[in-house]
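Entry 14. Structure prediction run on the chain below.
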Amino acid sequence: MTILILFACIALLIILISYARLHTFISFLLVSILAGFLLGLPTEKIAPAIEKGIGDILGGLLILITFGAMFGKVVAESGAAQRIAEVMMKLFGEKNMQWAMVCIGFVIGIPLFYGIGFVLMVPLIFTVVYRYKLPAVYIGLPMLAALSVTHGFLPPHPSPAALVVQFGADMGLTLAYGFTLAIPAIVLAGPVFSKYLKKMPSEPLATFTAKSIPSEALPGTFNSFFTALLPVLLLLLVTGASMLWGDQAQFATVLSFIGAPSVVLLIAFGYALVTLGLLRKTDMATLMQYCVEALKDVTPILLIIAGSGALKEILTATSVDQEIADKLQGLPLDPLILGWLMAALIRACVGSATVAGLTTASMVIPLMEQAGTNPNLMVLAIGAGSLAFSHVNDAGFWMFKEYFNLTVKNTFLSWSIMESLVAIIGLIGVLIINYFLI
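Output returned:
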């Protein structure tokens, strides 16, 4: 009955948004309230759960999205993104631009959380798209596939890192297996799949593009690349310093502060204002106007993400994820397949890869011990499953839809299928490795 209610609520949400043309945020609130009632959440707890869900998801994403948007706008308007696009086009050529995006997405995705990588790379994607008149989804999806794979498969991202600890897995082996799986997953779900999406209509947000600037008036190549990649460099620096000197309490506290994603973006934004703005004779009033324009464009995205957080919290508060996991435990399946399936269904229900991975972990540990399952491969099986079936209760779904200005239908046909392909290819890879290790 719980599953039927869940699917009915998701169907209603799609109907309200796509056919009734109700604003997505309002649709989320109405469906969240209905889901709370139907799933048996006490009436007095529905409103607090909705408020908590909105607060939790915006607490983690508000600074990232707003400062990421302002940072991206400055990079675009200054001409730095144009310079980067020109250099990339010379290096890779238009025919290989997808592979350039894949490489950048994979390198960026290893140290960065998915949300940060997304908002930092979107300006680069859109600059390439507008400057060379290339299909937006065709160019952008491969990079986002790379970001998604690193988020689900590879430590130090939250879910795989936590699973390594819980299962007593070997971090080095998990990373080695993860890299082995990541390559085919990214290639097939990214460049190969996106070839079928060349004609998908998409008008990306214009805020991250700027009018063409003569080449001689653009920022220098080093300044453009260094500023655009500064958030990544800072995080890599902090990670390396933590490994070397993290045992010193006072130093560890400073690193923890500097390495916080919001602080990293604040530092990068300030640096961009100076090097791409003030030092190039752009006054502060103009720079702040760029920021205002960027914020106007991302405000609707924040509302939609807030709505998805409300629905996610209702589903979590009613223990839908635990109920599904309990029912799946008795299935006569290989533990690796069962772990993947549990994570996939929980992801579909609550919309969070991290929640899906961590919820599944406690359920499969007894099964692993009984069957002698390889813990490194279980980390990857659950990580792959936690990426499956991304849809309307996932903030990533709405970020992709709104940034790329797609219909709900086309977001399903591009984003949701890409995420599910990554999950399925990951499971196949895990089973192949397990076959040769037995």
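Residues 2-437 form one domain.
Filed with the rest of this week's runs.
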